Amino acid sequence: MIQAVRGMKDLLPTEAARWQAIEQVARQVFRCYGFQEIRLPLLERTELFARSIGESTDIVEKEMYTFNDRHGDSLTLRPEATASVVRAFIENHLDQGAGVKKYYTIGPMFRYERPQKGRYRQFHQINCEAFGVDAPELDAELILMLMDMLEKFGLGQVRLIINSLGCPGCRPGFKQDLTEFLARQVEHLCPDCQRRVVANPLRVFDCKSKTCQEIVSAAPTLQEQLCPDCRRHLDRVLELLSGFGLNFEINPRLVRGLDYYTRTAFEVVTTQLGTQDAIAGGGRYNGLVKALGGPDLPAIGFAIGQERLASLLTDSRLGSEPHPFLFIAALGEAARQRGFQLAQELRRLGLAVELEFSDRSLKAQMSIADRRKATYVLILGDRELATGEAPLRHMAGGGQETMALAGLAPALARRFAAEEGA
Ligand code: HAM
Q: Is residue 275 part of a domain?
């Protein structure tokens, strides 16, 4: 038996229904905030991710699905969407014209991580990016949108954590201090972090090793060294969020696992997911568009992990499994033909209708209808065809009525509109 690749999950119908509902809510919220959909290739040139996420990040060093195509080009299955959105933004000249440019994209990402609950090798993100404005209002707007979306999904019990990662003005001084601090105890750091002390000391903050965590808990933080502009930016973002009654925590050690961030960085975490507690993460990346060869435009975005979100919504009413409005239990060849015609007529009117093509007893067909949670069952046999009337059974209520076969489709369509179509 050939099995699915480790860390990659099948989404079965019940779960897929919940995902559809999640995506529908997300799309509605995006629309209200002026975001437009963008759909991008899953494969990009490896260099794109190395240059944007950063050569010495875990993602680029250890987690990418990279291969050479038949032409010898190094390609990578996208581990995240931001780099691809920026590439598309530049390549398609989407910076033309005034105003903030806002895009969202929903789809699979790939990271070769150790699979565990809430962590997969193919996972999905609801991702958005906004280009063109450095105003703290945009940061606040995005964070409010994220919290708004999570609330509309029906998610309670989340914590919003915020930090500022500074800018090219204030970060180098901090990096220097951090390097000196880490260098003093370099022999206690894990081998990865020993390398990172010089190359990329900020990455030590998100190392999972316990000793590295202990060491950085006493390290200097960027909060103490933000330049006046970055300080003002952060204060204004926090002031705006407070003004909207949002609760948040400031964590001066939140650095996020990707190198492109500047200024505002944030994460939404829950206590209900065990160690994989981040549902969403994002931040500003004011230098990335320019670094990838585009105009000098500030940008900000975030991504929600769809598997983690969906696993928190299993009890909610969001996205129930689809069920047929009508099941036609047809007995005999002539009834099956008539049932087939009726089903097609009703489906064209927008109703979900199912029927069995095999020769099963009424009892067997009723039990299929029950399992499929059909609202109504129409029983159709030779006698019904002869009299022009057929029983319609209401499955949940248990009642039954007699329906004229002539004009049955419009009659059922009207009933559907009254009961379920609204
Ligand atoms: P990230 O923090 O790497 O950020 O991922 C965002 C979210 O994706 C995480 O909070 C988590 O819910 C989910 N996620 C990440 N890895 C996995 C995995 N292996 N299995 C399941 N879920 C996972 C980014 O990707 C940035 N591109 C976000 C961003 C957009 N920043 C600016 N714009």
A: yes
Tell how far the Cα of 334 is from the centroid of ligand 1, in angstroms: 56
Confidence check: pLDDT of 43 > 90: yes
User: What separation in Å is there between the alpha carbon of 163 and the centre of ligand 1?
Assistant: 17
pLDDT in tens, 233-263: 999 999 999 999 999 999 999 999 899 999 9
Residue position matching structure tokens 């003093």: 184
Return the ∠ at Cα 355 (arms to 350 and 357), rounded to 5°. 135
Instruction: Categorize the per-residue pLDDT at 421 as very low, low, confident or very high, splitting at 50, 70 and 90.
Output: low
The answer to whether residues 306 and 345 belong to one domain is: no
DSSP letter assigned to residue 186:
G
Q: Measure the CA–CA gap between 268 and 308, rounded to whole angstroms.
A: 12
For ligand 1, atom 2, the nearest C-alpha belongs to 281
C-alpha radius of gyration, the chain, whole number: 28
Q: How far is the CA of 257 from the centre of ligand 1 (A)?
A: 9
Residue 188 CA from chain centroid, whole number: 38
How far apart are alpha carbons 342 and 339 in whole angstroms?
5
Instruction: Report the residue among 109, 139, 273, 284 best suited for mutation to probe ligand 1: largest number of ligand atoms under 8 A from its CB.
Output: 109
Statement to judge: residues 232 and 377 lie in one domain = no
Does 179 reside within a domain? no
Single out the residue in 277, 312, 347 at which a domain terminates: 312
The predicted pLDDT at position 422 comes to 56
Give the model's confidence band at 348: pLDDT under 50 very low, under 70 low, under 90 confident, else very high.
very high
What are the residue ranges of helices labelled H in 246-294? 288-291
